[in-house]
Amino acid sequence: MIGAKFVQSFSVSNVVIERIPLVRWKVTMSRPYALIAASLSLVTLASPIHAADVISSVDQAVAAALEKHPDIRLASESLRKTKNTITQVLGPAKSPTLRATASYTRLSGLGAAFGGGGAGGATGTIQNPFPIGLQIQPPGSVPINLAGPTRSRQTGGGGTGDTGGNVFGSNIDLNQNSVQMSLTQLVDVTGTIRLADYIGDTQVLIVEQDILRTKDTIALSVRNQWYVTLRADSLVHIAAANLDRSKAQLAVAEAQLRNGVVAAYDVLRAKTQVANDQQQLTTARNQAQIQRTSLALAIGVEPTTEFKLTAPTKPDDIAIPALPTASVKDLVMFAQKHRPEAIAAGLSTKMASHNTRYQKGGMNGSVAVSLNGNYNPSPALVANQQATGSLTLVFQKPILDGGVTRATTDSVHADERRAAIQADQFARGIETEVIQAHIAVLDAHERIATSAAGLNEAREAFRLAGVRYREGVDTQVAVYDAQAALTQAETNAVNSKYDYFIALAQLDRVTGKH
Predict the structure, then answer these.
(1) How far is CA 340 from CA 59, 70, 78, 337, 512, in A?
(2) Least confident residue range of 75-79, 251-255, 398-402
(3) Between 264-299 and 192-258, two packed helices, what is the crossing angle to 10 degrees?
(4) How far apart (Å, rounded) are the C-alpha atoms in residues 43 and 53?
(5) Are residues 270 and 246 in contact, defined by beta-carbon separation less than 8 angstroms?
(6) Could you give the CA distance from residue 465 to residue 457 in angstroms, rounded to a whole number?
(7) What is the value of pTM for the model shown?
């Protein structure tokens, strides 16, 4: 059994999520194969909810979404790619590089004697003009040296013949094997590499803040959808209660008709009202099911996951948390310190400043130390050594670069100013979001009180309208008007409370609380 189902014994924001089958094995198989197949299925399905997990609160739902949500996995891959890119760029500069080359050459006899090919047998060099992409060092970038056998025609003596061998005898090995190794290290005398390293580390921190921003966005989406789903379930209860009231009114109309108090029109009108309310209940149930699929998608499970959310049957039973006591000023200050966007904007400003210093160093010199070694077990000439080495110190400094450094510096100065403008823009935007979210919380909280008072009045008005109709004092139209007002009052009470939950979640998001 693989998958998840959601079961709630309602406590406003507490919903229990248990496993249900998403994949059913209907093929008969032996026990070992069944265990293997089930194990493979558990690995294949990337569901954030494991077999033994039970989600009993909105916080657990958020935790499940943060574990396996595709957007977070994509952001994590971006972070991994950023780190690898920095390693590719700065790795050779920060750490020594070691290169090894092995070669084999077959010498001709005459070439061995004079250190090269004889007449009529020159050494050729072929370079590949088509470097292959996606390679750090394309094939063909290193020349291929061809040293073929040297053949010459000789005169004199006994006639013509092939020299074919070593003119000095057999003391020279015509098979030449050599190994070369080179160790190179850049010396950061001007601090350029340290600046580049700091810029790379800052970029990693910016990407990490972007991951936190993604997590905050996903958490808010899950919380909002959680409360929207509960709201839809509450609206189903309201529609069901409204249908029950219409059915009761139909029974009253039929009794009044039998008693000769009202005309048949009242019964027809009551039946029409029942049919309309039945359609509204059907729509409410389907909408609640749609919200369940949206909740599954927000958490990161399959959209076909079955949910069982049981909201309170009455709006009065929906408990709400207390109103936040922090002032707007304190909330703004908290947000400026904890929002990932604000932190990333500050890091971007610092990185732009260091990037300006880095680009100004374009005319600085560079120092590199290289240690080279060569080993040839069988040198061609007796005087040659088997092992040779060298230590090289290279200092490079550009004298004229055609104004490239100055133009680049001017460009990064513009980037630095843009980063400062963006940081100020982010600060103002965060302050605006906090103020608006705080207003939304106060608005929803105030509407809870007014909707509760309106609900009590609507209930009493509906009760009086029913009494007046049964006593023959008032008409059926007054009853349905009072019933519609009661349904709207119940809807307003539910909406205000779940709007309050959503506004609190939004306030937590814009202040960086989570």
Answers:
(1) 20, 20, 17, 9, 7
(2) 398-402
(3) 160
(4) 16
(5) yes
(6) 12
(7) 0.68
